[in-house]
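Annotated sample (chain length 277).
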Amino acid sequence: MCLIVFDWRPRATDGALFTLAANRDEFLRRTADPLHWWHDAPGVLAGRDLVGGGTWLGMTRGGRFAALTNYRAPHEMRPDAPTRGTLVSAWLTGAESQPDTPLDYLAEVARIGSLYNGFNLVVGDWTRRELGWYCNRGDLTPALLPEGTHGISNAVLDTPWPKLVKKRAELARLVDGSALDMPEPLERLVAMMRDPQIARDDELPATGLPLERERALSAAFIETPDYGTRGTTAVRVSVHGARIEVEALERSDDNGSHRITRPGDFERRDAFTLAAR
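Output written by the structure step:
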């Protein structure tokens, strides 16, 4: 997952609590299962990386949520580092020995963070109204996120890369303009993220990649011969009295057969209800 924008309203009493639009960018040769309820963890709704075994974004019937992006630092990559996707799946599957709250879980992750290549990890519990973030690069500690509209690409939270700034602003307008109260709100979020426009050269970050690669990766929706946006996920969590309603839509390049169709138009949708605390 390489671009996530989300709006977080932990004090909501009626209406939107959490709204997210996210693109997963990955090598086309890397196989994965699309969004589905896991057979070995029936309460988990997520895609699954069939190489590393973890996932990039998911949620549970109990109200847990997690998502991950890689931190772009090509000269620091270690091929022997453990897969980062298991940091997401560990929170979602909720082992008994695991900390109960997002912040406690991120503190545990921070203790072993140096073992991994660079990452951003967002962990939440919608019933607790808690959403936390941690990045294992720089002198950063886990923190609960304040109310507002945020974005993460392949640098720390809210780093003003052009695609992040643009999509964060578009999400804020959609949420504040009540466009998401109209029909097909998840489709609007997906369409927003399928944007192939690249940034100007003077706006590009310098992350150690060749200029042509930086240009290609500056698009929200990435298309290269070997790497690109493999799927877009939209999530909307709404409060309605004592209920929390969750809706999810994924559009991807894989219908479950692991044959890639570009650009992807296979859709999976799900919805479920939580009991608010």
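Annotation: DSSP finds five helices and 13 strands in the chain.
Annotation: The chain has one domain: 3-275.
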